[in-house]
Amino acid sequence: MWSRRQILALGGLVALPRFGIAKDAPMTDLILRTIPSTGEKIPAIGLGSWQTFDVDDVAPITPVVERFLALGGRVIDSSPMYGKAEDAIGKMMAALRKADPKTPAPFFATKVWTRGKSDGIAQMKRSLALLGIQKIDLMQIHNLVDWKAHLPTLREWKSAGTVKYIGVTHYSHSSFDELEQIIKTEKIDFVQVPYTVADRTAEKRLLPAARDAGVAVLVMQPFASGALFGKVKGKALPAVAKELGCTSWGQLFLKFLLGDPSVTCPIPATSKVKHVEDNLGAMRGVVPDDKQRKAIVSAVG
User: What CATH number corresponds to the domain at position 193?
Assistant: First the structure.
């Protein structure tokens, strides 16, 4: 399996131009997506924290969040399932705000991942404390764990203003039918699912259901945990990359997702500043049309 680092390190062999975004890159050309339930616009590329932020020492990864926010990123997603990630995010934001009080505020998303109403409430309160906030943008029910017990609480918290948006998530195709039914029958704001150029199962019914119900879509693991970079090992960027202003395969993978109007925000996780710069390069310029998306699919193989 080839990693993103190895693919990028090949340089000229695969005709990858240097990537990254200038420190003075304009914010006027950012791709924004609308949250259907309110009309609020958010930047179209977010930041996940699974595995990458499960650390004790946040100093080495704080520049990742700093650069992400400086380049216009806002959505930062986490979960109690991700070990120390929520605590790490809270500590990083505290450090950044101390260094610069004008640090942009993230759009925080986390999850409840336990059984029982009382345990769910306790866990969500702990998440807010770890993140250093009193209100959160998005609370999701992680992998549908005891969702019927937690959804009424999420609605209560939303009515009280503690939560702005509520949603559900699942990583498994076997749960797509259940997710679809929740989208159709329960009033939620967000759904989070896996979706990549090589795994398009969500296109069949789930994404259309979200679009029809006015539900925003977060995309987890948009690089299939790095597996997509193995699929393009040794391949030069196709002509469509230049058409879309993409300078790396990572940007092309993300642009493919943004070419689906149902997708609100992919959330790739990373602990590398250079990967944040590369990812957010896909948040600029144009999105692919159907013909260009087909060209990306063909190029990946």
Answer: 3.20.20.100
